[in-house]
Write a structure and sequence with these properties.
By secondary structure, the chain is an alpha+beta fold. The protein folds into four domains: 55 residues, 434 Repressor (Amino-terminal Domain) (Orthogonal Bundle); 180 residues, no CATH class; 60 residues, no CATH class; 49 residues, no CATH class. It is built from 17 helices and eight strands. It has a four-stranded mixed β-sheet, with helices on both faces. It has a two-stranded antiparallel ribbon with strand order 1-2. The radius of gyration is 23 Å and the shape is globular.
Length: 379
């Protein structure tokens, strides 16, 4: 059975994932004819196209290609201009997180839990040092305790746990859902914040280094304190045009590396000689330390740019680790707070297993139950 579908819809679906006709000849030998309107696919072939191009099949029956827009303020920039069309990977991660947030909001309200006391209670004119200290106190984020961790991974895990304890859903993943073939690109985004009175959520692009993720989390927490949702490409060197992004970057930097503390530890003769030691001390990226040395007025802009680029080149030569425990990874991907609530609610019969599986990215009940056991539930 052939189905009527407009050629421009098929072309749109292919181009939105950045694929050429040539690259699809083996998978879809008739794609060229379909896009020219010289032939029609069968329903089975159209379903295969939708699956391969990560597009809801209903979109292919629309009268014209939809205008896909990021559902939250997009504060990313290249130079002084906005970025181009969002990738399907970014959009799908955003939609998935919005669905999780909506579920947790209703769950929290059904339990009669009060709204967050920290989200949206500060303004962009508030002093950076004051807000950074306020966030630090709310999380119990102790600088000395952080320096005692052996690795950035341990420090980041503790940072996430502190945010989770406060009521913030922190999700960190390098892929869409659990699909390891759909890897997220740090060149497109580093994180986003979904503000909410009952279910504030932060997503961190896990493709970044652990040390860089520390900065992203701190930046997105600043958005949560402002009560402003946003998609960000935050980094220590970024010079965003938007005032709100500049403020969040400054809060994140001050939160992680207070200037008063840093100045006491810098060498008087060669401040950049201390970068590696201070990165370990504060458990942040060496790039953050270099930026803070500049913020402290110890190097000029040209020296900062040179030191930063040299450090970027060095970091690119360091191989990334891979693998790890599935259930630890899964907990990081969906947030411990969210996972525990959803699993308990599902076992109580309040949420369908089908819906829980979709939100957790799990396909088998056995995996679901083992995940629950790893989170402390007994069956």
């Amino acid at each position: 059975m052939r189905v009527k579908v407009k050629p421009e819809l098929l072309r749109w679906a292919r181009e939105r994932v950045g694929l050429s006709l040539v690259s699809q000849r083996k998978r879809f030998p008739h794609m060229e004819m379909w896009e020219r309107g010289e032939a029609l696919p069968t329903l089975k072939q159209l379903e295969a196209v939708a699956k391969a191009f990560f597009v809801p099949i209903g979109y292919l029956f629309l009268p014209e290609p939809p205008q896909e827009r990021i559902p939250i303020p997009d504060l990313r920039t290249i130079g002084s201009g906005p970025l181009g069309h969002p990738s399907p990977d970014l959009l799908d991660v955003l939609y998935l997180c919005q669905r999780r947030q909506a579920w947790y909001r209703e769950y929290s309200r059904s339990l009669g839990e009060p709204p967050c006391r920290f989200s949206g209670f500060v303004g962009i004119d508030a002093p950076v040092e004051e807000i950074a200290e306020r966030i630090r106190q709310a999380l119990g984020f102790d600088l000395e305790a952080r320096s005692s961790f052996a690795t950035w991974t341990e420090a980041l895990r503790r940072f996430v746990e502190q945010a989770d304890d406060l009521g913030i859903l922190v999700m960190c993943s390098s892929v869409v859902g659990n699909n390891n073939r759909r890897k997220l690109d740090t060149e497109e985004f580093r994180g986003f914040a979904l503000s909410d009175d009952y279910a504030p959520l932060v997503f961190i692009n896990g493709a970044d280094t652990k040390a860089a993720q520390m900065f992203t989390l701190a930046h997105e927490l600043a958005h949560i304190w402002l009560g402003e949702s946003a998609l960000s490409d935050a980094s220590p060197i970024s010079q965003p045009a938007q005032r709100i992004e500049k403020w969040c970057n400054r809060v994140a930097a001050e939160f992680l590396v207070p200037l008063k503390v840093l100045k006491l530890e810098l060498s008087r003769t060669d401040p950049l000689a201390d970068v590696s030691r201070l990165a370990r001390r504060f458990k942040v990226s060496s790039l953050v330390i270099i930026r803070r040395v500049y913020d402290a007025g110890r190097i000029d802009w040209d020296s900062f740019q040179q030191a930063y680029q040299e450090e970027v080149a060095r970091l690119l030569t360091i191989p990334k680790s891979s693998g790890g425990d599935f259930y630890l990874t899964q907990t990081a991907r969906v947030s411990r707070r969210f996972a525990r609530a959803l699993i308990a609610n599902t076992l109580e019969g309040q949420t369908l297993f089908r819906d829980a599986f979709q939100m957790l990215g799990i396909k088998k009940e056995q995996t679901f139950r083992e995940f629950g056991r790893n989170l402390g539930y007994t069956f």
